[in-house]
Amino acid sequence: MGVVKITTLKQTMADFDVLLPEYESPWLFFSKKMPSLLEDIQSKMELCTCRKNTILFTQGEDNPDVYIVRTGVVRILTGDENGSEKHLMIAGPGSLLGNLSSLDGYPSLFTASTAEECCSLYRTTGQIFSRMTAEIPGFKDFLIQDLCAKMRILAGNISSLSFQTADTRIVRAFLYLIRESGSPCSRGIKINIPFTHQEMADLVYSNRVTVSRFFSRLKKEGVIEKVNRYYYILDVDYFYNYMNRLSGPHDESIV
């Protein structure tokens, strides 16, 4: 089992940023961009704590509450009447949730569900949130950034589903997990968000069989291992080299 050196990891992350620009990430993070504004917003909202798999609001719900993620991760999903679900994006600290309905008055387009055991969120009603939009200086700029980020994520989802194979989408998902939630350790890089094969399949618009097959290949080649619900990246260069040599849809994967 190899060990990833910190200097190598930093350089590899810089290479990842060239291959996968931050604006293409399916992760919403705003806490680092506008901390003072977030403090003003959060001071007018109620703090609540939710356990994993708590539904904050559902697709089609009228007048959902508006949330800002303080700590933890929230999954944004879409589904159909048969119960099938697909992940659209992952919301981290600083992300706004439920604000679209408060702006246009229509039912929620998505379902939001907490993905970590103890998520801390700020909450308020859509009516109060609309007043905050007018009262807090700079808040409209924050909303524009939020809407732009979500539009880019949704456009990226359409592009990847249309032009990339399942294996490539899985590799890209690993790269973003490494960048957003990875931490160096003695094994290599620990992904600090536990997930199942089915959850990965939902995230990359594939199926559990395809994901399991590719994960088995990665384990066999010594790229990843799973310990106590968490995945560890043993060979971070594998993902970089995979994307770096990718010049077209030449994977042998099935979607």
Descriptive notes:
The chain is an alpha+beta fold and 255 residues long. It folds into two domains: 6-24 and 164-244, Orthogonal Bundle (Arc Repressor Mutant, subunit A), CATH 1.10.10; 31-160, Jelly Rolls, CATH 2.60.120.10. It has nine helices and 13 strands. It has helices at 6-19, 35-42, 99-104, 126-135, 139-163, 166-181, 197-203, 208-220, 236-244, and strands at residues 27-28, 46-51, 55-57, 66-71, 74-79, 85-91, 96-97, 111-114, 118-124, 182-185, 188-191, 224-227, 230-233. It has a five-stranded mixed sheet with strand order 1-6-5-8-3. The two termini are 31 Å apart. This is Cyclic nucleotide-binding domain protein. GO terms for molecular function: DNA binding; DNA-binding transcription factor activity. It holds the Pfam family cNMP_binding.
Main attributes?
2 domains, 255 residues, 23% strand, five-stranded mixed beta sheet, alpha+beta, disordered N terminus, Jelly Rolls, Arc Repressor Mutant, subunit A, 9 helices, four-stranded antiparallel beta sheet
In CATH, the architecture of the largest domain is Sandwich
How many beta strands in the DSSP annotation? 13
Helix content: 40-55%
Helix and strand content put the structural class at: alpha+beta
User: Separation of termini?
Assistant: 31 Å
CATH topology title of the largest domain: Jelly Rolls
For the biggest β-sheet, the strand order reads 1-6-5-8-3
Radius of gyration of CA atoms, rounded to a whole number: 19 Å
Q: How many domain units?
A: 2
CATH superfamily of the largest domain, by name, is Jelly Rolls
CATH top level assignment of the largest domain: Mainly Beta
Pfam families: cNMP_binding, HTH_Crp_2
InterPro entries: cNMP-bd_dom (IPR000595), cNMP-bd_dom_sf (IPR018490), Env_Response_Regulators (IPR050397), HTH_CRP (IPR012318), RmlC-like_jellyroll (IPR014710), WH_DNA-bd_sf (IPR036390)
Organism: [Clostridium] hylemonae DSM 15053
Keywords: DNA-binding, Transcription, Transcription regulation
